[in-house]
Amino acid sequence: MNRSISVTATVLNPNRLSWFGSTAAGLLLVLVAHTVLAAEPAFARKKFIELGWDIPSTAQLRESWSEMEQSTPFDGVMFKVEATDDQGRKLSSEAIWDSRPWKREWLQAALADLMSCRFTRFTDNFVRFNATPGNLDWADGAAWGALAEKAGHCAWLMKQARAKGLAIDFESYGAHQFKFDAARKISFADTAALARERGRQFVQAVAREFPEAVLLTLWMPGCATSPLALL
User: Fold this and answer.
1) Between vectors from CA 221 to CA 218 and to CA 227, what angle results, nearest 5°?
2) Alpha-carbon distances of 149 from 6, 12, 194, 229, rounded to whole Å
3) What percent of the chain clears pLDDT 90, i.e. is strictly above it?
4) Is the backbone peptide bond immediately before 133 cis, with ω within 30 degrees of 0?
5) Percent of the chain topping pLDDT 70
6) How far is Cα 127 from Cα 129, in angstroms, rounded to an integer?
7) Separation between Cα atoms, residue 69 and residue 74, nearest integer Å
8) Which pLDDT does position 67 carry in this prediction?
9) pLDDT tens-place string over residues 143-177
10) According to the model, what pLDDT value does residue 30 have?
11) pLDDT digits (tens, 9 = 90+) for 35-94
12) Rounded mean pLDDT of the chain?
């Protein structure tokens, strides 16, 4: 069954939502996403998904999920996954777009956090997966393999936690991953072909772990309409 995602942005005052902490010092960005099932004649109900400057970790969800459900109008929340590697270094799904591999066992604490949440109204929850630092060479198969594997780990985590899928933020907060760079001495056509192959590699890794996963993309609809878009 084919699915497409529509995203609308709106602005709310975070002071009216009691569970947002002091880190949300400015305006709150909220995304409204709805899934359109191609086999159905009518659109599904729009879903109200929270995304703010105070993106909660799974540990924060564990602590505050009940208050969040009771005090906000949302159908779900975007959150970050934090982990620790074997050397004690901190990892985050908000800085995951690099060639360093992750081990699935590092996500066990996040899984325990999510499984402790007894959501009743938050039915559409997503892990935020940022294209940061975003410095992968399109021709580096090993690096993209590591990234795809991490996407698969996060998809596995979402399935185990009965979440909806991955919220992929393609905006370049670090290097400009999706901007064509003529200095690399590779043609635009060849770069575009590599980008499509990496996209397939990424999505296939997700689908192997969670075939029903929803991929909610941030910022990408505007990029895709650009005459210089690669994907």
Assistant:
1) 135
2) 27, 36, 18, 25
3) 65
4) yes
5) 77
6) 6
7) 7
8) 96
9) 999 999 999 999 999 999 999 999 999 888 888 88
10) 35
11) 333 445 567 788 999 998 889 999 999 999 999 999 999 999 999 999 999 999 999 999
12) 82
Q: Quick one: residue 80, left, alpha or beta (phi over 0 = left, psi -120 to 50 = alpha)?
A: beta
Contact 20, 53 (CB under 8 A): no
User: Which residue, chain included where needed, has tokens 């699935």?
Assistant: 104
How far apart, in Å, are the Cα atoms of 171 and each of 40, 71, 73, 133? 32, 30, 27, 10
Q: Are 69 and 39 in contact (CB under 8 A)?
A: no
Residue 51 lies in a domain: no
| Residues contacting residue 152 through CB under 8 Å, at least 6 positions apart | 205, 206, 208, 209
Question: What's the domain range around 199?
Answer: 56-224
3-state helix, strand, coil in the chain (%, to 5): 35, 25, 40
In a domain, 8, yes or no: no
CA 148/CA 98 separation, integer angstroms: 10
Three-class secondary structure assignment of 186-199: CCHHHHHHHHHHHH
Residue 37 lies inside a defined structural domain of this protein: no
Closest by CA to 35, choosing from 23, 24, 44, 26, is 44
Q: Is residue 44 part of a domain?
A: no
Q: Which residue has the higher pLDDT, 8 or 78?
A: 78
51 touches 20 (CB < 8 A): no
**Domain count of the chain?**
1
Pairing assessment for the beta strands 3-12 and 126-130 based on DSSP bridges: unpaired
